[in-house]
């Protein structure tokens, strides 16, 4: 007899997950934000991920949160994900409130945590808006232009390329364990025996995985050598060629202008009508 | 163009010289194949040409390598890379960029060519890949990936192209396509091409010269016809000459000519008029339906597909029905993507059918876990490395039995180890073995599960001919508890020599359910399933032998020299 | 300088270690993201990461490249490709993990010594977790105005962080750190290195404390530690700036926010500078090692 857990796990472990992962990784669609200059977007998001920490005005915080929510929605982050995120952020602090209530005896902690929750929400939403739709290649180009070494941007595209291969290989190895292994006869309380069985496999599978990947890596690094990767790291020619494609255009300026104006409005309103 | 002069090399701290005073010259515009057994130093020799040895892999290096007037040992890898391009055997790991165009422009971009985009596009155009420009590499087929790797190498416009085992991982149709491209590069763009190759039939059809290596030295370099005619020497070094050459060698044993035909056309010219073709058994006589045994696998209207990243369902297997019986040796054939592997995975329970019913030994696979099904079905992976989950072959064989706490398993394991000649490898890690040893070990692991059904995915892919023969012998000896064996393969010689039943797949449906003889006498079917018959079949057809012989032995038994009495067929087949 | 000599790598070998660590840890991090988690009260039964992977690689290869590779892999595979990239927040994780794993790798002198491996695994994960607790507390501290004044809040956050620390140490540190490391290191030792074209590390049972204390390596620890301190506490410093200047700027109504914002920008600049530094640091480390060798 097959039980719910196993069904769940088999659903989790095979094709479905792989496809979902691939979809998230490769399914970047054209959105309002994805057309913009990645360098500008990174700086923009850095601004909105640092600044909220230093704002203690509730009106401004709520205003910014709404703005970020709208932008995330425009970046085609599904509304469900946004809601889940909000719930997640709130639940993060429930224990804190609960324990503080127990130790301090008042509800002030609850009130104190609300602005913090909103801050984290602003930060998460702004990163979500910017990075879910950003092509990883564009991101790595932007980092390259900020002076982050080529190794990192290589890592991005290598990860982008190897991800499906690695997932498939890991899946085959797991299946190899299962094809020769034996599931525990009893499931145990809360399926703990099954959980232990699967966790053990998922750890042990890294033994073959490590050796196989090491073999792979050797060819890759050798090929990088003959294809001039280390040469490009030593001189700037390649970098200059690559970054030529990055340009700020009309849309970028419009985006900056519009979001700045809205932000300034929010701050002004907040100053006059602080909550 | 290339001049290698008494070159020796060994890795630091190693006693063995990987290259030992190797000397050879290669002219501009040559299409050369390097042959030799495992460990002959073929790849190592090629890596001296682009300076990876000794600049990148430091070690003891002697002798000189001149490439287009440059001393390779003292020139940087970067400079040499623009003259010599290299495509690896495991080309998957050479592709480091996400999309096709990115991959093609990678090298010229790294070397700072302002026209990198044009160079990349030009390379794609030459190889006919322009329409794939924006595709993600992981979504391409194996053959396309290999071409992209080649495009990546071409984009630097090198004079010399080195391709390590180009067809090892490709199906026959794609392999021919690749060689046609190489030929075009050689003829139209005057590139010097060096391939490391086991498949002498490709060498015969495409190369102009052949270099034989052994233990780090170059034994000889000869024009291809002379090289491949040295049948005895080649066989002695575990390199099998083309099937037609072998056949002609046997036919002309007594005359001992210096040269043998190496292509079908040459062989046809030799045979016509000089040999008589004997009639073979009638096609249908080989198909006499025996009394069928007990049903082992029964599929009824089975469906399988997966979701693509656009969330569309892509069907792989379409309402397929098939019944397999005890005692059958079934070959699943078809081009890449026909659904062969998926079908095997479905029988093994790795994937469950999404529609229809699939019974293995009378039980539905949907109701069994992978672990339970594994007690009846052994699935041998295409890539043996994915089957080595322990750190020694012994433990790997033991794993299944240990998990089931089988008492006194020691003896049985020893028996398996002996049967598969793994005595010396028992404590080694599977990954560190040679390709042939890995196959043997993976088969042993599967058989140790005492399965009644064995499924093998490409058991002979990328094996040299000697280990291939070895593998075939073992496949023929799968008796005892194994009731049904199913092999998914591109290797038509394996199909011809081993299978009792052939299932031809295309697009997830069964095109035909037949025997090797009928399959190979049906050109329309072969074409539709993009299969390429063994060379000897083609020769049989060319010399009007009906039904076509499908193995060299059969061919030899059916030709007779005009005016000469009964052939020496028996000793001939023994010699093979 | 024995460790540097024995783990001296060519440029390409460094790249191999980096790529290997990146691919493996990135993959594992993705897998742990998928694994379902269960919570009972504040105790979470989930695997935050497969600590044994960077631990093993740091033990067997040059710890700096393995540690950097792992951190980069996490960011690329688990965050960037999975659309979970949190901008500047990635930096804290990056620094924590790199420092923790790097130090763990330094501790092990003999890869076959179980005691050393255990200590290394616990220290590695422990450092990562302590740093992360500090960051969490700092965040709440900065994020809540008048944090100290809320009754029970400081105690609760410390208590919760302590619980989560113990929780993480048991699951990530022991179950997915110490135990797999002890099983897998002896299996991989001497086997994985030749695949990358390297010689395995020598096993030396005796290791004096003096060997740990090497100027070059200490420098790295201090530099990385310092960087992480700055990154984590800069914000706090800025808060003080804000207090300091608030009197001065009282004349401007609500000037407070603006100062905070400008301070934020300063942090941002610094952080970018630091990111750049960390990467170029690799080269410096090499140089330090080289020059140290020459001195000896």
- What is the H/E string of chain A? HHHHHHHHHHHHHH
Counted beta strands of chain C = 2
Q: Kindly report the spatial arrangement of strands forming the biggest sheet of chain C.
A: 1-2
Structurally, how many domains make up the residues of chain C?
A: 1
Give the low-pLDDT segments of chain A. 1-8
Structural class of chain C: mainly alpha
| Proportion of strand residues of chain A | under 5%
β-strand number of chain A: 0
Q: In which range does the helix fraction of chain A lie?
A: over 70%
Radius of gyration of CA atoms of chain C, rounded to a whole number = 21 Å
Which properties best describe this structure?
heterotrimer, A: 275 residues, mainly alpha, 2 domains, 14 helices, 0% strand, B: 576 residues, alpha/beta, Rossmann fold, 6-stranded mixed sheet, 24 helices, disordered C terminus
Task: Please provide a written account of the structure.
Chain A is mostly helical and 275 residues long. Chain A contains 14 helices and no strands. Residues 1-8 of chain A have low confidence and may be disordered. Chain B has 576 residues and is of the alpha/beta class. Chain B folds into three domains: 2-237, Rossmann fold, CATH 3.40.50; 242-278 and 536-576, no CATH class; 293-535, P-loop containing nucleotide triphosphate hydrolases (Rossmann fold, 3-Layer(aba) Sandwich). In chain B, the strands form five sheets. A six-stranded mixed beta sheet of chain B has the order 6-7-8-3-9-10, with helices on both faces. In chain B, strands 17-18-19-14-20-21 form a six-stranded mixed beta sheet, sandwiched between helices. Chain B is globular, with a radius of gyration of 25 Å. Chain C has one domain (2-295). Chain C has eleven helices and two strands, in the order ααββααααααααα. Chain C has helices at 2-6, 11-34, 52-60, 63-80, 89-107, 114-143, 153-188, 192-195, 209-212, 215-248, 255-295, and strands spanning 38-40, 43-45. In chain C, strand 1 (38-40) and strand 2 (43-45) form a beta hairpin. Chain C is globular, with a radius of gyration of 21 Å. At the A-C interface, helix 2, helix 3, helix 6, helix 7 and helix 9 of A face helix 2, helix 3, helix 4, helix 6 and helix 7 of C.
